[in-house]
């Protein structure tokens, strides 16, 4: 922490993981100390920071900062998304990259951990401006990545449009047609189910957790935050399973829809028209629009934070508990603060940590890599069935690891321990690197 001041989110993620693997560390203290295992784990293998100049529609040159943190390649090529958002800095990319190591390990697939992005915000930019930015970003990044080295994907602000522009520029510069990015369009190597994967996966995990605790998801009221890729498909799958999602949000306001969210309307507004949620409220009589934060004040049985880090804080946790919430499952990365997580757990709320419950996105990305290597495309049903199986296994492994260490139902600790053990074993076997 002293060596990397000012990286608040990274320190938060580090603290959370280190705290919950304490039981494993104590068992192996001497060996870990001698091999500086935790120090190596907390230091990225490589960190790349670069200038991204581009020209806006007024002919003005703009300059953003690009990042790629190649955190850990013990179990496979670096894998993790790119985030384009004005809040991006090195601390955020490192927190996401660090979490990614354990998440990817939990999937059971051969992928290491990495993350990247830029403080560029695609919101309100023309397609030409987004393309100019993506081409400039890739002009530096392409020399550091590759299908067997590092395979980026989308994240906040990086969807199918951005991945397409990035892939086009990579191909042009490298003269290689390879699976160097995931989340690609279906006409150029993308996988069916990838768009739905994180949201669907979140619900497969949540459903497994609820079932293990004798709770039926059918008929339950669900509060969801966010209105992006994860939130939309979490809402869709929750409805398919018989639940009733009644909220969604963006960074300016939130929707309460007493009839349940109309997911087709939400898709049209967010994915096609790229409009704000005010447009949803205008188009639907049963919906109310509220400025600012407030999703967690709604009475619900299940809460699914699917927007961004630290969006569910202690006062939100208190309000959820007061309203009788049964389970909180993270669709976003680290959306719940440490204090809020502890408060929920102390009040017997089932809690699914993002690195386990949102792993469906990266798991399906790894399936996209497998299809690209085979030069084949699997059907939607095939990928969806594999996704469901992976999520149920992640739940079973996290639950078993928690139980093994006497931390029954503490899925945060279980996920961290299960993810950590595999990475550490692989690191040890590969010597001091
Ligand atoms: P999108 O860009 O598609 O959507 C993000 C949503 O969250 C938007 O509604 C956005 O609102 C809102 N949001 C973003 N930043 C903030 C903020 N600072 N305050 C309030 N609301 C905010 O991103 P995704 O849905 O892909 O990602 C959401 C979360 O899920 C992130 O934490 C991401 O890391 C995580 N995740 C995503 C995966 C994926 O496959 N996409 C995989 C695993 C995790 P607005 O439009 O107003 O900015």
UniProtKB/TrEMBL annotation:
Record: active site:
115
Superkingdom is: Archaea
Q: Which GO terms describe its biological process?
A: glutamate biosynthetic process
Q: What does the entry list as the binding residues for NAD(+)?
A: 198, 229
Q: Where does substrate bind?
A: 79, 100, 103, 154, 365
Family according to the record:
Belongs to the Glu/Leu/Phe/Val dehydrogenases family.
Q: What is the name of this protein?
A: Glutamate dehydrogenase
Q: Per the UniProt entry, what species is this protein from, by scientific name?
A: Methanobrevibacter gottschalkii DSM 11977
